[in-house]
Each structure stands twice: as C-alpha cells, then as structure tokens.
Protein 1
Amino acid sequence: MTLRPSPSLLAAAALCALANAASAQTVLKMGYATSKESHYGVGSTVFCDEMEKGTQGRYKCQHFPNSALGGEREQIEAVQLGTQDLVNTSTGPLGNFVPEAKVFDIPFLFRGYDHARKVMDGPIGQDVLKKMQAKGLIGLAWTENGFRHMTNNKHPIVTASDASGLKMRTMENKVHMEGYKTFGILPTPMAFPELFTAMQQGTVDGQENPIPVILSAKFSQVQKYLSLTGHVYSPAVIILSPKVWGQLSEADKKAFVDAAQKGASAQRRKVNDDEATGIAQLKKDGMQVVEKVDGESFRKAVAPAYANFAKEFGADKIAAIQAVK
Ligand code: EAX
C-alpha cells in the first residue's frame, strides 16, 4: 500500500503556503488624482510593477486612482502620518510641507519640457527631493503632471487681459495664486476632487491644468474654451511614507528608487503622447481651442512679481534654474 496524503491534507498544505506567501507580501496603498489610464496611472503602474519585481514580490501596490483617498494635500498629509503609503502627486500643495519645492511653481520659469525635466533630474531638483526627508516625506522620483493651460466658460483667452476678471480655480498654492493675480485672474483655491462640480455649477468660470488632466478628468464636458497658455510647469513626485522607508533594507530602498525612476519615465512618455494627440481629441469633444496665445502679454504681466519671487527664493536660485541648458 502506498501512502498518499489525503485530499484534505493537501488542501490544508496549499492554504498554508498561500498564507505564508501573503504574510511575506506587504501591500502598499498608492493614491493619485486621476484615472488608472491617465499619466499618473501609467507612471504609478510601472513604478508598482518594477518595485514588486525589484523586491522579489515582497512589496506590491493597491491602486487608489481618481482621488479615492482624497485631495492631494490630504494624501500628502496621510503619507507623512503613515496612514497612506504612497502618493503620486503634483507639487500643488507640496510647498505647504516643503517650502523649497515652491520655486518650481513660478509661472514662466521653464522654457519647455526638456528644460523642466533637466532641472528636476539635475542637482537642483534632486536637492529638493532629498530635502523632503527632513519634512517626513520620502521623495522617490520627480514624475510629471505637465505644462498647465487655462480653460473657462466665458470667452476665448488670447491675451492676459482676456483672463482678467475670470474666477478661476487654482491649486492650494501661494506661488500660483500670486502669479495668476498679475494676469487679473481671481484665484479660488480648491481641492481637485471638488473642481468638476464647481465648474458644472458655475461656482468658478474656469481652471488651469495640463492636457493629460483635462483629458482624463473629462473637463470638456463642463468647459467650452481651452487656451494653450502653458503658463506654468507642474512637476509631480512619487512620495513614500517614512514609516515604510524605515523598514526597508538598503537593497529594497534602491529597488524602490529605481522603480520610481522607471515610473517617472513612463509618466513623462504618457504626457508626451497626450500632448501630441490630446488637443485634437478635446476639439472633437467640443472644446474651442486657442492655440496661438499671446504669451508675451502673460510674461509681461507676471514680470513684476519676479521681484517678490526673488526675495522669497533667492535671485541666484531662479537664475540657476533659468541657466540650465
Ligand atoms: O495632479 O489639482 C490639480 O489641479 C492637479 O493638477 C491635479 O490634481 C493632478
């Protein structure tokens, strides 16, 4: 007679193996503002997959897209506290936690995507990423939200004076608000999850966001006019809670950072794709698009505010960013 394990014993053993695998795997909560298909979703998915691979499956993500864990300010707070593990967020509210990050939110600071990405990945950007640690936030890599453009429901914006008098939702970001006031805009700070309804109900006339956000949040349903103002670059960053970081081995820390850099590249590629195809899509969706904006009128309007920005951040810091070729 051969001895065979009984089916119930086999089932028990299988369950045991499953339980072991599960206990050896830590599931991290990753939140972001837009959909899983958006630039944030694409970047986060690549980061999470690479991080899982790089830690041999010991860490993985559960995704919370579409602001399911709250606005970006709330999510950064939760990551700081350790009640949320990861967030892929714009720098909109980040300056309230890490003042050094605010310099990147100055309107018309960057000449274009190449310039912006070079600064964020170079010594100036990496220095700010490291400084986040002292504020209880582990910045893993700069991802990207994109250059921001204005939408509204009143009339096409070609020059800064067209923007004047419009009630526009802004992020909870003092640098943006100060800059946009020079355009004559009435800035109304508001968390992103409230924005769609605010535009639908006419609480605000407009808003400003990069093409990938306008697309994925379907703002074409509630906004008539889009102007390619590109008035400010909107960096984004993957932040890890110090609670998780403190538990990682050196090898795992490296795996997280490497994964975040791959996620950042994927997110930027998705921004490129949306920039290339999104405007045609938004036109198809019924938006009236001003492609030739009088950028000079906006630059002129904001120029006097640069004196204040220089006072706050140092003229040398601003010049150093501008000098990056
Ligand atoms: O990060 O709040 C905003 O307008 C952000 O650009 C958006 O949530 C994506």
Protein 2
Amino acid sequence: MTTHHTRPLRLESLAFGGDYNPDQWSEDVWDEDIRLMIDAGVNLVSLPIFSWPQLEPEPGVFDWGWLDRILAKLWHAGIRIDLATATATPPSWLLRAHPEMLPMDAEGHRLEFGSRQAYCPSSPVWRENVARMTRAMAERYGDHPGVVLWHISNEYGDHTSRCWCPVSARHFRRWLKDRYGDLNGLNEAWGVNVWGQRYTSWDHIETPRRAPGPGNPTQLLDFERFSSDALLELFQLEIDVLREITPDIPVTTNFMSMFRDLDYWDFAAVEDIVTDDAYPDPADPIAHVGAALNYGLMRALKGGQPWLLLESSASGTSWRDVNVPKAPGEMRVDSLQAVAHGSDAVMFFQWRQAKYGQEKFHSSMLGHRGERSRTYRETRELGRELQQLREVHGTRVRSRIGLVVDWDSWWGSTAAESLPSQRLNWAHQARAWHRAMHLLGHPVDAVRATGPFDEYDVVLVPNLYIADSAQAAALTSFAEQGGRVVVGPFSGVVDATEKVHDGGAPGPLRDLLGIEVDEHWPHTDGVTEQVTFADAAHDNPFWGEWIDATDKTEVRGCYASGELEGLPAITRRAAGDGSAWYVSAILDDAGLVAIFRDVLAEAGLPARDSLNPDFESLTRSSADTDYTFALNHGREPLTIDVPPGARDLITGATTGASLELGRFGVAVLATPRADQAPFLTLRV
Ligand code: GAL
C-alpha cells in the first residue's frame, strides 16, 4: 500500500453537524431541516451513507433525483457535504442474486440480510459492485461545489470484520502465498509439527473455523492480519476510483476509536484525513479517560494532523443494554474534549432523530420534539460556542508522552486460547497505563513501536508481546538520546510468527531493559499479590513474572507476597542519556501512578499532586499561541491554577491566578506560545 499525499479539507472553521438521512423523511421536512441547521450553525453533514437501495432501486437503474435536490438545498444554505459513497451496506437485490456474498461466522453459519454490513469483505462480486457504485457517485457528484470530503463506506468492521466463508478461505490462501511464498514457508511459520498440522496442499488451508480444541496460534494471528487487510483492500479499491475521478477531494472512512479488529495505522496511511466515531458511555464516570486515549490515537495516526470527530451522540445511544442519556452539559464537555484533543469537528449521529427502525431511540441533534427538544437546545448552543473557538482550527496538540499501540501484539496476545493467562488483555493494559498518565496530568499520543519518538520525553510500552529487532533498536536509540522508556509485562516474548525468542522474554529488548524473564507467573482469579515500590505496597492482581536483573540494572520494586516474594518486580536501567524501565507486574492505578511519577520527574516533566480523574487539561498550539483547554468531566466544581492574564476564548474574560470550573465546565485559555505547554493543576 502506498501513502498518498494528504489533500486538505476545504473548511476554514471547526466543522459542526452530523449524519443526515433525508431519505427517511418526506421532502416537506427538508426545508425545516435546513432552517434549523442554519439556526444551529451546522456547516457540514454526512450523507447518503446507507442509501444504496434508494439510489439504485434495481440493478443499473438509478434514482438520483432526491439526492440532487437535497444536495442543492444544502449547498444553497452554505452547508458543506461529507459525501458518502453509499457502499456501507448492500441492497437486497445484490445479495439475493449472489447469496455467496453473505458473510459466514466461525461456526459456519451464514449471516442473513436484515441489518447492515451483510457482506463478505473478500467477495469479488461485492468488490466489483462497490467499485461500480463508487464510480457512479463520483461521476455524478464529483464536480458538486458542496462536496468537501468523501466518506467511504461506514465503520469498516463494525458488524462484519471477519468472515469464515469459502470465498474468504480462498482469499486467505492467496494472502498466505504472498506472505510465505511456498508451503514450506507456511509450514515453518505456523510451526506445524506441533499437533500434526503439516499442510501438503494450499487447498487444505481453511479459515480458522471452530475446531475440536485450541487452534494454531500463528494461523489465528495470520487470520487477524488477513482480515484487517481484506477490509483495507476494499477501502483502497474505493480510494483508487475516487482518486482517478476526483483527485482533489480528500477521502476518509470513519474509525471506531481504538478498535481491535483493524490496524488503523494501515488504514490511516492510505487516506487523507482521520475521522472517528466516539461514544463514551454516560453511565461510566471515567469514560472520558478512555476517550482521551482514543483521541490520542486519532491525532497520531497521521502524525499530529487535526482529525475530525465525525460521529458522537447528543445524549443516549440505542445499542447498549441500558442507554443512559447525557446529563445537561455533558454533551458539551464531551464534544469540547474531542476538540481539545485535536479534532477540527464536532459531528453527531445523527441530525434528526429517526421515527422508525433500529435507531429510533438513539438521541440526535434534533430530538423527537423537534426544536423544543433538549438536545436541539444544547447542540445549538454548542454550535454557537464552536464559532468562538474558530482560532483553534488547524492547531496541533502538544504531548510529551507517547504510548505504543501495536495491533500485532494486541492480536497475538489475545487471539489464541493457549496463553499463560487470558486475564492479560492488551487493551486493559494500555488503558490502565494511559489512565495513570491522565491522573498525573499528561495527554498521551499513540505511537508505533518503531517511532518516530522525536516529540516525546517518555515512551510507554504497556505491552509488546510480538517484538522485533527494529522496534528494539528504535526504543534503544530513543533512550540513549535521553528518552525514558517504560515497558510492561509479557513483552518481547515472540517474533512475528509467534516463535518464542531465543532465551525467552524480553527477547530483542533484553539489552535495553537489562533483565531476563525466567517464567511468567499469572495468578488465579481472586488472588491479588503485592508489589512494593518506593516503600509503598501496591496491588498486583492477575500477573507477575520471575525476572533476573543483570548487574547494571537497578531493582526499584519487588514482589512482596506469594511465591515471588523478594524478587525484582520493577527495574530501571540507565541507557545512554536516558533510561529503560521494566514493570513486570500488572498493577493498580496507584502503583502505576507512583512509578510514572518517578519517570516524569526523571524526564524533567511536571506531575499533578492531586489526582482527580474528572480534571483534564491539554494544549493545542499554533505558531504563536497556546490554547490550553481545561475540562471538568464531573459534577463537582473544581478550582484550578491557571496562567494569569490568559484570554478565555469562551467567555472573553482575562484570567486571574485561578479559575472556577463548574459542573461539566470548560475554559479555553489563549496565551503566547511557550517552550513548554502550560501545565494546569488543581488547587487543593
Ligand atoms: C455508529 C454508526 C452509525 C450509527 C451510530 C449509532 O456505529 O456508524 O451509523 O449506527 O453508530 O451510535
């Protein structure tokens, strides 16, 4: 796959709007839509995402009229269009003509029509039709002056990210041939001498359907890689058509935050603009902490370039077991959090709340009560507020901390059933490490294990199960040049074909970390051991390791209970001008906070004393101005110390030495750009 030059989005201010489904309404509703959109400050809408059957009711017979009419109305109202290629879901006539296009699950059952995304990503018929529809859309609307962005498909992999059907199996074999060349290569890679799995013909290879016992881990890992690539091919296929016909219009597909099934580094590399759909659960008081890491990934996927929050909810969703609404003010702070994290848009699913279908109980900008609905009042106020924030458009987030996000390690450490413990979960581990940095007051960018690390003082590697020498070299050179690397448990265990590194973990990271892992030591459920760090005991649920430190490595923390009592748990090794830490245990928040506090001090970075997850602050900068966002994600008011003399973009006021942030309160403080971004703290 090639990385293409990034085409800019032709919007001068922050985008505001949402998914728009005019084909679910009679045309007499459209004028009211437009009037209320203008009133709310909407300047961008996404359509027609799921409308293929309404656009091509019969094979080859198109009905463009309704789309022509609504696009014209939007254009005349000054509302720009994120035009979907309408390929998110196939029409029934296509599926009934080609039933082999329906996806199949791991048990061999076909999934039926009646929801959405009922397609096998590898199906040649689907691909051919997707290309045909994309071409038809591009030819018809590529010159439309309102179209500023192509919205390809919708949330790839949301419902169908893996398919185990015979067509997928054929595609999987081709993918494996490309990867391994010949059957010997494949047999060697998959370690087939274990449990008698030698293949003598390519045709004998299947997708890893349900088998009598645990599957071959490398086959499972390759299937994860293949499945991500299969959807990436589908994405590339549409991009190629669009670049041919509309070379100047940027392309995107909306991501689903930190989504396990697709390697978003690969997807972002082929598109122009990263867009994300974010649905933090209002029932979870620290959902915003998870969102912060997701946004740290979104801005990192294209090297810090602003991204767009393309979907979010004005209040409740309708796909959770219990869909708690957002309290008054909560949607605003959620939205401004995304802006703080580098989004140049606040967009929603969806503009007008549906009257029927699967999503009629999903909140929208315009609720069932129309302009009298609370969500409309609140989104309209937000639309006005975003206009006051137009200066932040195009600015970039400043972060000193990188956190390695590596899909191979995520898949490898979770796809197999035969692991030391199923309780070591890549995402939990990454989220816990990020949460500790959030508590200490630092935003975190995602980064690849090979860097680039130039922007960072600290690089966190919560888990790198699959590690190679290029990653080890990049991390080592970062440390030697003065960086601090912190590596988590179960790292450097295997190579890309899941073969254990010679001498065991941490494999290629052994010299950098100055430790050797003798044995992984997971705990059974309900057993929590203790680890001491800086004289305090911390809970160590789930996982420990028997490690030996080599002579130049300092032991900074030890196991304090259980079989590992007295053995090293947390180590630090000086490396050039920097250092490399190893945290062999899974620790509670307090334990991670204590370790990271020391790492930050070593790196010369500030840290908060008072740990309140509700308080978040981070800075977007232009060449001459720092815009520091202060967000209160909770209901209790907070008092924070701020730089005096800053201009609050929202109130227009000039700050004194402290600022009161009410329930769900937000301030955006402009100050002249400084070498280090302002670091705001809570007043206690
Ligand atoms: C997204 C999807 C939208 C809508 C939304 C509801 O996953 O892209 O079409 O279904 O969820 O939250």
Protein 3
Amino acid sequence: MNADNLIQQSKDNKEEFWKEQAQAISWYTFPKTITSPDENNYNQWFADGELNMCYLSIDKHIEDGFGDQIAIIYDSPVTNQKKTYTFSEAKEEISKLAGGLQSLGLKQGDTAIIYMPMIPQTMFAMLACARIGVIHNVVFGGFAPQELVVRIDDCKPKVLITATAGVEIAKRIPYLPLVEKAIELAQDKVDNIIVYNRNLVENKNEYFEGTIDYQDLISKSQAADCVSVKSTHPLYLLYTSGTTGKPKGIVRDTGGYATALKFSMKYIYGIDPGETFWAASDFGWAVGHSYSVYAPLINRNATVIFEGKPVMTPDAGTFWRVIQDYKVSIMFTAPTAIRAIKKEDPNGELVKKYDLSSLKKQFLAGERCDVATLDWFDQHIGVPAIDHWWQTESGSPMLGLMTGFDDYKIKRASAGKPIPGYDIRIFDENGYELDAHHEGYLAIKLPLPPGALLGVWKDFDRFQNSYLSQFEGYYFSGDGAIVDEDGYVFITGRVDDVINVAGHRLSTSEMEEVVSSHPDVAECAVVGIDDDLKGQIPFASVVIKNGSEISDEQVEKEVIQKVREKIGAVASLKNVMVVKRLPKTRSGKTLRKLIRTILDGKEFQIPSTIDDETIIDELIEKIKIYKK
Ligand code: COA
Ligand code: AMP
C-alpha cells in the first residue's frame, strides 16, 4: 500500500473507505448507516453509530493496559511548573469533574463554556463534558468579555468553567473581572460558574460569591461514567470569524470527528501510539481542540500542554528544550512561531544546546509559510517541515502529505495535496472550474468527509449562506488557491474579510464594527497588511465625523483601546490612521483591496469602478506621513 493507493481507494468507494477507517476506533454501537442526510438534507456520518469521545481518549487505553502511560505533559515556563498525568490519573480527575457537572444538573445536550488558560484543567473540563454528553465551547483566553457575551447569548451555557488567571509572559491576567463583566452584559444568565483557583493573582472576594470552587467540586463528587452518544451528537461548538461581525458557532460531531482524527494521526502525521505529540496551540483554537487534546489522546500519544510562547519564556530555545525533555516525535505549530524564533536566534545558536534526535517531523499550519522561514528551519533543525492546510470548519487537514507512507514529497510553498475525502476544485467567480496554474476560489465538492463541520449552531441559513451558496454542490473555503500540474495546491490567502494574525483568525468586519462605534468616527476600513513576524496585522483607516473637535492622535489612541476592550489584545490593532476620505466605487463600496495593496507598498491598478481617483493620491501622501 502506498499513499496513491489509499487516495484511490477513498475515491473508488467513499462509504466503504470511511467505514473501514471508522473501524479503527471503538464504538458502543458500530454504525450500519455510513452517510445519510440530516433534516436540512446536509450529509452526516455514521448516524446510527454510538460512542463516547472521553472513553476513546482515556478509558479505552486504561482498559487496554496502558493506565500508567503518560497522557498529558504540562510544561509552564511562565509559572515554573511541570507536571505529568497518566491516563489513570487523568481519568480520576475527569470522571469526578464530570460527576460534579452532573450534580449541578448538567445532562446530555446541555452546553458549557470553558474560558481558561493553557493548563491541564482546561483539558479535563473538555473531556469531562464529553464524558457526559455536554457540548463544550472553549473560548480563547485572549478574547475580551464582549466575545464571551456573544458566545453566552448564542449557545446559552448551563455552566461556565474558568480559572482565576492566565499568564502572558510575565503579565498575569485576572480572568474573574472579565467573566463578571461578560455575565453582566449577557442577556442569558449562566446558572453555574466553576472557578479553578491558580493562586496567582489577588481577586476580590466578591468575584467568588456564588461561584463553585473547582477543587471543592471534585473532592465532593462521585466519578461519572461515560455516556453513549450518537455519532452526530455535537462534541463541541467552536466560534470562528466570518465575513460578518458575529462569529459563527461551528458544530463538530462525535463519530465522524473521532474517525477523521484517528485517520490523520496514522496517515497524515505518521505517529505511532505511545510516542509524544506536541501541537503548540492554545486550546481556544481548532488546532488546540484537535491536536492538543482529542487526536493525540485517541491515538494514545502523550500530548504536551505548553503554557508559554516560542520566545521570551525564557528565550527562543524553549521549543527545543521541550522537544528534548519530552522526546517529542511530531510537532505542530504556526509559521509565525518559527519566525519569532528565527528573529531572536538567526544563527540557530540556541538550537545547538538541545538534543532534538526524537523529532521526526515538524508540521506547520494556520497561515502561509514563507520560504525564508522554511530555509531557516531546514538549515538549523534538519527534519522535514511540512506545511498543511485546514480550517476550524474542517477540524483536520484538507491539504497535506500522507507522511504515514515514506514516499511523500514536499513541494516548497505548497500546502500539499488533497487529503482523502476532500475533492478540491478551483473556480473563477462565475463558478467555472479553472485549470492548473490559474488562481481562483478554493471549493470542495459535497459531501465533506467525516470530521468536517455539521453546520452553524442553530442557524442553517447562516451555514448555507456562509459556505454552500457560492458554488452549488460545493463548500466554499474562503481561501484563494492555485493547483499545479502535479496536483499540489498553493494557498494564496483569504478572499474575504478574514485575516490571519500570528496564526489567529480574526474578522476585519468585526473590527470595523468596533471602530465605527467610536462616537467621533464617521466611517472606517480595516484591512490586513503584511507583517514580517505575524504574517498579517490589522490596519484601520478612519474618517472623523464632520464638526468633531477631537485630535487625530486622540482618535487613534481611543480606537486602539476600544478594539482591545471589545475584541481583545489578540486582535493586535496597533495601526490607526486618520484619513479625509476612503476610496470607494461609484456605488459606494469601500475599495479595501486597493487600500491594502497601497499600504503594503505593492503595485496597484486603479479599479475602473472608482468614484474619485484623487483620493488615491491623498491616501498615498497620508501613508507616507504615517509611516514616518
Ligand atoms: N490571554 C490574554 N492575552 C493574550 C493571550 C491570552 N491567552 N494571547 C495573546 N494575548 C495578548 C498578548 O499578551 C498581546 O498583548 P499586548 O498587545 O498587550 O502585548 C496580544 O494579545 C497579542 O498576542 P500575540 O499575537 O501572541 O503576540 P505576541 O507579540 O505576544 O507574540 C508570537 C508573538 C508570534 C510569539 C505569538 O503570537 C505566537 O506564539 N504565535 C503562535 C500562534 C499559534 O500558535 N497559533 C495557533 C494556530 S496553529
Ligand atoms: P482557522 O480556522 O483559525 O484554523 O484559520 C483557517 C485559515 O487559516 C484558512 O482559511 C487559511 O486562510 C489559513 N491557513 C491555514 N493553514 C494554512 C496554510 N497551511 N497555508 C496558508 N493559509 C493557511
């Protein structure tokens, strides 16, 4: 068997292929139905199968005699802590927390928000929910209260699980004031707040009033068993940025997802059970869900939870130290992390201090990887760096290489070839399929394979409008791409209002909503501009209201602060420029792409639809002054 045979099999008989992959995981009831339509006629996988994700991740391995194997490695340079948990130790805490959730009245189908930092308890909370069929929604700790509010009001959680603090390098971030603010602003009231006390910050006593102490709950609770859930039961919701201001609650199923993850560990990542896998991502992102928690655990790999940054915690050698200390065999990070390391350690001096012999491959995703970063990696680390492409929506890679076989070939700057189940096409804007070497919109023929989204939480219309209506019979990814003559795909970037800042997916329209809410702002345009470290960063061009007496500097400062308060520091909006007018089409549409191209200092063409060409010179002049 080689990769080509496997890919061919997946095309020849899709149902048979995925049925066989589903046999690699344990089911309480193995599905008889492999594909079937849901109530909206959208495809679902293994509908009559039953299983439990926490069982697959933890209990199964204990039953198989691996209870004493290390499952979780927690390494926190920011708090000077290191701790490991075996599968049996993890089960002890997870099952008691699950019992505690049940004692609070939570049951299958309820939702829970988890707003926590990179600590094992976050993972325990996710797995405890999965154990009893509660649908979790992890919210990235770098988001501001307003982001929490949107999620509370959309998924109406019965419980919110949080911690007293996160740590950003040397800065301690108290979570409870943020949670309190969110609870105050949300329309829906959350019945239970569970707080894990890290004893890192002083919190006012009133923040704890009416909350439940995590440790206390565990010590009082009976262990709960895994419940059997339908394959289509939502394991989690993960909100992601779309083209409109409000994030979309991506719904992930259980059976299709578990099947896809197990498949990916064997064939895409090529890792055997028992080895150590490290995805250096926050739990709040899709990578964190799939490759810090569920995939490694299902595959019986030890997974590393790293509470730190690639640099400054304490230095740019920290990733290499972790690889050495835990014998990491496969690592996954965003190119921005490697760029940050390269900037601090251009000659790879820190790399030489560590033994990286355990490392077999480095996977990269989240944003386009530039060749200079790959060069640095090749020169100093010397293991294959493999780019692959996926989205929150897919839950696992859609483009990549089948490194489980030895015959894979890397093509630089390409994110690889379609993964089995993903029938990828490139269309022009009228829906005509393009040949090799023509840039167009990346779409995927329906049905999507197991693991991909089931929909948008309680909003089929939004699901349809966001993904299914652009090209009939296809899922539209929002990315542009080119395919070459060998079938390798080159992602050219988002074609919508989504930007990738340091591997974090953010919506410029959401930022525009916040900027426009400033009382002195008449209108604005937020675009993503190139950045050497973060790949892209947002840039806001702002027009001040006529008659407003505020200074440009003051508006710039206040807009930056507003975005930090409403979206979070992670938005990284540091550039705000006041302009007299924005370039627009005759029908009044802001020419954002033109603004972006000018800001990036690239050559641009004046669109024929422009209303007033003189605005371009105004803008160029203003940028010259701004950049000084
Ligand atoms: N809680 C609170 N604040 C957070 C946060 C969190 N979990 N995560 C980030 N922030 C804050 C940071 O403190 C920073 O605030 P500041 O503007 O006050 O300094 C801001 O959000 C931006 O953070 P970040 O994007 O992480 O930038 P950085 O300059 O601190 O670090 C990198 C740059 C490249 C080192 C860092 O972005 C990185 O490690 N990126 C890898 C991303 C990744 O793994 N993505 C996952 C997809 S695979
Ligand atoms: P997220 O949903 O946060 O994982 O972000 C998904 C988006 O990140 C995709 O739509 C792409 O725009 C971008 N992305 C992810 N992986 C890659 C990659 N390997 N190359 C280029 N862009 C990528």
